[in-house]
Each structure stands twice: as structure tokens, then as C-alpha cells.
């Protein structure tokens, strides 16, 4: 009952501040516009599938911004203001606070983003008179997994940071690390340890490493829906692998937060 109470509290916070409604309106407008514009004929008179219309790119950016906005201060902000001590005066454990904060944020965010993901095919169908292909459902799955990961990262870092500013700074730092440092490490190792004639194509271990970060998994997984590759693929280049990477990374920040937060000094 204690965890359920916390989940309801954090979910109602987004309702009281209207933040979930703002996020839902944002995604409905943006994705609805993308669906409508994608349904327009090309200069050849062809109708493009919805999965190439840019939903994945817009979601990749907007989900990061909205989850950080709603999640970075959920624990760190309460800790900074002192309200976390009041909350812990009730029969709630610290782990329940972190888990309740995550579940109470991810639910409204998933609902808001799902509204946008529904608006896109509706607008697309109204303009083209046809439904989007089955690949769009796979795209929806990737966007929702991306949302869960980004929310877990925001809430997890919020539980590890002492202030809201440090939490959002650390979260952006993690994303920048995935974007620029993750793939740079194996590239440098290959450059320094392999002779030039063996550096291209990169060794298989380096290719596997490059696909193990969540940002790359989301980008490559969704791009495969728009531009299917030709020829056989390695296991680490397939859609199920990219989905599994996102699912695992969604667990990592929360696992760290649940382990470390009970040990912190408030």
C-alpha cells in the first residue's frame, strides 16, 4: 500500500501542475503535423510510409527533453527543499520513494506520448485514406522503450544527485557521453593497437560495443524501419537486439538508484 500511495502521489503531481497535459498536447501537435505532412504525395506522386516521416527523430529529441524536465527534480528537488524528509517521516522506505517516483512519472509520460503516437497515424490516414504499415507498430514500441529508459535515467540520476541542477547537468552529461564518448573508445583502441590494414572494417568486438549504448540502439533500430538493410545481419545488428539493449538500459539507472539512495546522507 505504501508504494501504491507514492505512485499515486507522484502521478497526481503531474496532473496538478498540468505538466502531463502540456506534454500530451506537445506530442499530439508535433506528431499530428508529421503524420499529415508525411501523407502528402512526393514529386513523383508517391505516398511515403509513415515510418520515414520523422516521428522517430522528433521523438528521440522531445522524449529526452520532456523526461528530463519532469524527472530531474522529482527526488533531488524534494531533497533540496527538505520535503523529502517530511515524506520519509511516513512509513515509506527510501527504495519505495525512488520506485514510486519512477512509476508515478513514467505512467503519465507514456500516456502523453502514446497520445502523440496515435495522432500521427490518424492524421496520416485522414490525408492518404490508408492506414500506416505494420512497421509503425514496431516504431511505437521503440519510442515507448526509449521513453521508459529516459524516464529511468532522469529519476535515477535525480535520486543520486543532491540538487536538481546537478541532476539535470549529470543527465545531459550522460547523454553526451553516449553520443560522443561511447563509440570513441573502441575507435581509439583499434587505431592504437591494430595495424592500418586491419582497422577497416572495424573488428567485430568494436562493432558490437558500438551497438550496446541506448542512444545508438534507438537510432539504428528506428532507422532500420525506414531504410531496411540489404544482406545478412549479425545478431547485434537486428531489431530484437536493439530492443533488448534499450530494455536493459532502462533497468540500469534505477538499479543503481535503488542500491545507492538508501546509503546517502540526506
UniProtKB/TrEMBL annotation:
Name of the featured protein: ABC transporter permease
Species annotation: Halolamina salina
Taxonomic lineage from the root: Archaea, Methanobacteriati, Methanobacteriota, Stenosarchaea group, Halobacteria
Pfam families linked: ABC2_membrane_2 (PF12679)
Lineage top rank: taxon: Archaea
Annotated keywords: Membrane, Transmembrane, Transmembrane helix
Record field: transmembrane: 20-39, 59-78, 98-124, 136-160, 167-185, 239-261
GO CC field: plasma membrane
Coiled coil (UniProt feature): none
Amino acid at each position: 500500500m505504501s508504494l501504491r500511495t507514492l505512485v499515486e502521489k507522484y502521478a497526481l503531481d503531474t496532473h496538478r501542475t498540468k505538466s502531463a497535459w502540456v506534454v500530451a498536447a506537445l506530442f499530439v501537435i508535433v506528431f499530428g503535423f508529421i503524420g499529415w505532412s508525411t501523407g502528402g504525395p512526393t514529386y513523383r506522386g508517391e505516398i511515403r510510409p509513415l515510418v520515414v516521416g520523422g516521428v522517430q527523430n522528433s521523438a528521440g529529441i522531445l522524449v529526452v527533453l520532456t523526461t528530463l524536465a519532469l524527472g530531474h527534480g522529482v527526488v533531488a528537488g524534494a531533497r533540496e527543499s527538505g520535503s523529502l524528509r517530511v515524506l520519509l517521516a511516513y512509513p515509506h522506505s527510501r527504495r519505495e520513494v525512488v520506485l514510486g517516483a519512477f512509476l508515478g512519472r513514467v505512467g503519465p509520460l507514456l500516456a502523453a506520448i502514446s497520445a502523440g503516437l496515435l495522432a500521427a497515424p490518424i492524421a496520416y490516414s485522414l490525408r492518404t485514406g490508408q492506414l500506416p504499415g505494420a512497421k509503425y507498430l514496431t516504431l511505437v514500441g521503440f519510442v515507448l522503450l526509449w521513453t521508459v529508459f529516459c524516464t529511468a535515467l532522469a529519476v535515477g540520476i535525480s535520486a543520486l544527485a543532491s540538487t536538481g541542477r546537478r541532476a539535470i547537468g549529470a543527465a545531459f552529461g550522460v547523454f553526451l557521453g553516449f553520443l560522443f564518448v561511447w563509440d570513441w573508445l573502441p575507435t581509439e583502441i583499434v587505431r592504437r593497437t591494430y595495424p592500418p590494414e586491419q582497422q577497416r572494417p572495424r573488428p567485430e568486438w568494436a562493432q558490437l560495443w558500438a551497438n550496446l549504448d541506448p542512444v545508438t540502439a534507438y537510432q539504428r533500430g528506428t532507422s532500420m524501419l525506414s531504410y531496411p538493410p540489404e544482406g545478412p545481419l549479425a545478431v547485434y545488428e537486428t531489431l530484437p537486439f536493439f530492443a533488448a539493449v534499450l530494455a536493459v538500459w532502462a533497468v540500469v539507472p534505477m538499479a543503481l538508484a535503488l542500491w545507492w539512495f538508501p546509503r546517502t546522507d540526506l
